[in-house]
Amino acid sequence: MNREIHTPQTPKHQEQPSHETQTHKNPKKPITLLPLIFLIYFEVSGGPYGEEPAVAAAGPLLAIIGFLVFPFIWSIPEALVTAELSTAYPNTNAGYVIWASSAFGPFWGSLMGSWKYLSGVINNAAYPVLCADYLKRVLPHAFADGYRRDLAITGSTILLSFLNYTGLTVVGYAAVALGVVSLMPFLIMVGFALPKVRPKRWVSMGDKGVKKDWRLYFNTLFWNLNYWDNASTLAGEVERPQKTVPKALLLAGLLTCLGYLLPLFAATGALEVPQEDWYSGFLADAAGMIAGNWLKIWVEVGAVLSGIGLYEAQLSSCAYQMIGMAELGLVPKWFASRSKWFGTPWLAILLSTAITLAVSFMSFENIIASANFLYSLGMLLEFSSFIRIRYKYPTMKRPYRVPMRIPGLIIMCLVPTGFLIFVMVIGSWVVYVISAGLTALGVAMYFAMGYCRSRGLLKFIKEELVVKETRLNHRINNFIRIETLLYQRFLKLFEVVFYGL
Questions:
Q1: pLDDT at residue number 478
Q2: For the domain with range 27-457, which CATH number is right: 3.40.430.10, 1.10.3720.10, 1.10.3210.10, 1.20.1740.10?
Q3: Burial 265-296 (b: 16+ CB within 10 A, else e)
C-alpha cells in the first residue's frame, strides 16, 4: 500500500486528511462536551470500584500514594499525547492507528490497531464478570457459580451490546446518568466518614511485617488509570474535536482522580480492618460499616451501573476504531458499514461482542493482565509515534500543542515507558503466551489483508477511492481529447472557408 495514503498531513501543504470527507456521510456529530467527559471517565475509571486490591496488595498508605502519584507519571503524559495528536488529526476515528501509520507506515498502524483493539475487547470481558460478582453479593442464589453465572454473563453482554448499537447519543447521555448515580453513594460515604477519620489508620497496615504483592499492586494501578487515548477513536463523532477533546480530557482527569482518592481516604481512615479484607468489592462493605446497610446496597447497585458504563464506553471505542481502520484500508470496507437506523458500526459491534464473550470465561486476573500487556505494547508504539510525528512534521497544524520541545517530550515519555516495561516484565507465562499469540495474529492479519487486496478477494475503501479517481481521470482525459478534436476540426473548417473565399 502506498504510504502516502497514511500520511494525511504534510509539512508543505498542511492539508486535512484525504479521508476526512469519508468519515461522516452524516454531518451531524452526536458527541458534545458533557457526554465526552463521561465517556472518557468510563473508558479510564468508572469510579473507585476495583481499587480495593491495591490496599490488599500493599496497604492503605502505598495505595493512597499510588493513586496520588501514578496520575502524574502515567495518566497526564498519556492524556497530553492524546490531546495533541487528536487535534492534529481531527474528524477521524482512526486515532492512534493513524498516528502510528503516519509515523512509521501502514504495517505499524495495523499492528497498533490489533494491539489496542484486542486489549480493548479483552478488557471489556472484565465488566460483565464484575457485575456478576457484585450481583452475587445481593442475590447469591440467582448468580451462583456454574451455569447460572455463565448465563448471567452472556445475557448481560448481549444486552449491553444492543444498547451500544442504539447510538452514541444514547450511550453518551446514558454515561452521564450512570456516572452521577454511581458516584453519589461515595460522596455520601465520605460525608459520613469525615468525623470518624483517624490519619494514623492510613499507615497502620504499612509495617514491614505486611507482605507486599507488587504484581497485583502495579497491575491494579495500571488497570484503573489507563485507556486515556481511547478518546481518539471517537474524535470523528465529536462536535468541534479540536476544542472539545482537550477540555474533556482535563475535566475527566479531575473527576477520575477525585473519584479514586476521596473514597480511599475516607474508608481507610474511618475503618480499622485487616489488610486481607480489602478484596474486590470491599468498598460496599465499608459503606455499610460507615453509614448503614442502605448505603452498602446503593454502592453495590452503583458498581453494576459503573460496569455498564465501562462496557459501553470501551465497546464504543473498539467499534469506532474499526471504522477508522477501514477508512485507512487496513481492514475490509464492511467494518465501515453503519446501521441505517442508528448510524452505528453494527458489524464492528458484533465482532467485538463475539470476542468479548469468547474470553469472558477466563479468570479475572488473566483477563486484566493480558489486556494490560497488549495495551503496554501499543502504548510503547504510541509514545514513539508521538515523538516521530513531532520530528517528522514540525509545522503540522496542532490546535493543542504540548508546550515542550522534542528533548522535553522524550523525557516526559521516558517515565511512563519505564513503567510500561516494568508491567510487562512482571507478567506471568500465561500472559506472555496469550500476548505473543495475539501479536502473531495481528502480523498475520496485515499480510493476509495485503494478499486479499492484491487478489481482489475483499473490497477496501482506499481501493475504491483509487478506482473512482482513475475513472474520473479517464473521463477528464476523454473530454480533453474530444475538445481537442473538435477544436482541430473547427480550425480545418475555418481554413477551408477562409481560403475558399
A1: 54
A2: 1.20.1740.10
A3: bbbbbbbebebeebebbbbbbbbbbbbeeebb
